Structure formats: C-alpha cells, structure tokens
Amino acid sequence: MSKKRITYIHIFVWLFAVFANLPYSTLGKNSPPQQIVSNIVAFLYLMVVFYLFYLVLVPFFLNRKKLAAFFGFSFMTVLIMPFLGYTMLFFIRALFDGSFQNFYRGYSIKMHMSGYFPVLTAAVFGSFFRVIINWFSTMNQKAELDRQKVAAELDLLKSKLNPHFLFNTLNNIDSLIQNNPERASESLIRLSGIMRYLTYETSTDYVELDKEVEYVNNLIELYRIRIKSPEDIQTDIHGDLSVKIAPALFVPLIENAFKFSIFGDKKPGIDIHLSSENGTVIFEISNYYDKYSKNHETTHSGTGFINLKKRLELIYPEKHQLSIETGESIFYVKLIINTNGD
User: Fold this and answer.
1) What pLDDT sits at residue 152?
2) Which of 36, 66, 249, 325 is most buried, by CB atoms within 10 Å?
3) pLDDT (tens digit, 9 = 90+) per residue, 314-325?
4) Are residues 124 and 174 in the same domain?
5) Are residues 251 and 107 part of one domain?
6) What's the CA gap between 339 and 336, in Å, rounded?
7) What pLDDT sits at residue 266?
C-alpha cells in the first residue's frame, strides 16, 4: 500500500471521527470558550495517543515480536496517559481562571477512569490500524514478489530458449572438437550444467551458494572459450558457500561485463571476486570498457540492471547494498547481501 493512499485513509478516518462526534460535542454558539478549547485539546490528545501506538509502540515492539515489552509498555502508557491528559485540561482551566491554586482540585479515581476508556480506545485503534496497514503492505509486497519471481523465471526461460548464446557456444565447441577434444567435452559438460541449473534450481526461492558459484563458473568458462585471451578473465571465490541465496542474482552483472568489456589492451579485462563470511555475501566485478563507445552509457541502465534492483529490493529489503562506479575506463559493481534470517 502506497504512502499516499495511507495518508488519504488517515485523513478520512479523522474527518469521520470529527463529524461523527459533532452532534455530541459542546462546540455550539453558546458554548463557553474554555469548554471549546478543552474539547479541541482532548481530541488532539487522543490523536497523540493513537499515533504513539501507531508510530512507536507497534513498530518497535509488536512488529519485532517483542510481545512482553509491547504489552508492558502499553499497560503503563494507557495507565499514565489519562493523568497527563487531565493535567493539560487543568492547565487550560487555570489559564482561564487566572489562578493555579488547587491545580488538581476535583481530580479523583473516578475521573481518572473516565479518561481511561477514551485513551484505551485510541490505543487499541492505533495498534489495530497499524497492524492492518502492515498486513496490507505485506500482502502487496508478497504479490509483487510473486510477480517479479514469475517475470524472472520467464526471463530465465527466454535465456534458455534464446539460440544466440547456445549457437555461439556450440560453434565454439565445434571448433574445439578437432583441435582440443578434451576441452570440447569439458565445455559440453559445462553447458549441460547450465541448462540443468536453469531448469531445476531457478524454480526455488533460494539455492545454496555453492550451486550458484558452480553455475557462475560454468558461465564464465563458456565465455572464456570465446575470447582470444582467456587469461584476461580473473576470478577469486572463497568463504562459506553453504549459505543460501536467491538464484541468478549475479548473472546480469556478469553478462553486462562480458558484453561491454574490452580484452587484450588491459589486464585483466574482467575481474570477479566473490566472498562469503558470517552470512554476508560480497560480489565484486570490474571490467575495462571503451568510454568513447556509443554503448558505454548503457552499461548499467539496461533491463538486466533494472530487474536486478527490483529483485533485490523485494527479496532483501534493507539487507543489501548495490554500488556502481563508472571510472575513466573501468566499470565497477559491488553487491553486498546479508543472508542472515532468510
């Protein structure tokens, strides 16, 4: 649910509350000014209670499943707030009377309890309203995540059916059969591994990092046989590969690097680093590119990057960092993902 829509709901609820209570209020032409001011302050005070629960107690305690702390603070808040509310009303009375003597005159347990139930009502509605908003937001986020997952699966399916990469790879393997049959066989096995991964592993929400690494290595090796200087591709992968991660997150970054990289003049043409420690996965990739090329400005603005950013926001909200740096001749991307709790 968008913030704009939530704001409209808040405005509607409070306008409804105002007009619903007009017949029972004392805001008439003959009402004394003190009574009018007191009623307005009392209404605003209940709004404070409402948003205290809506903005503070529910997000900080209930949303984090700290139930004991939530109910403890809620009990103390509802118990104290009537006293503070009547203190404000007594202050208004003192201002109109011009005297602060016997400031709390008339205050009693009965009066306190008469203010307890409006405060309790505001607290309950504030909590309930926030829970409902959170529920709708979660449902919308889940629906968007499902939509993105379907879109990602369709993109992967298209990549499987797209003959461009397949034909280029098969042509390269064909040229190796006569000259280097052992490497040709190895390349066919890698191609088979890629197809197997795209067919079975990408249908799940998360895969082990070692399977993702195997897929990345197979992809890199098949790209490696297409260039004259395969030593220009450097990789460094280490750390705990048993953590789970969303599948095919690194593919757009790798494909982008091979698409725009130049080889031969600069070494390494592509440099890839992947590490995993304590549930944090760090993926870094850099490549040399021609800044005078017509395509260099599109190196990080294609649909691959756009879809990747959307997936990260949905799967790892506030648990990832994606930084892109375009230097004089080096394009550098760093992706940090915190997989703890997934």
Assistant:
1) 65
2) 249
3) 788 889 999 998
4) no
5) no
6) 10
7) 57
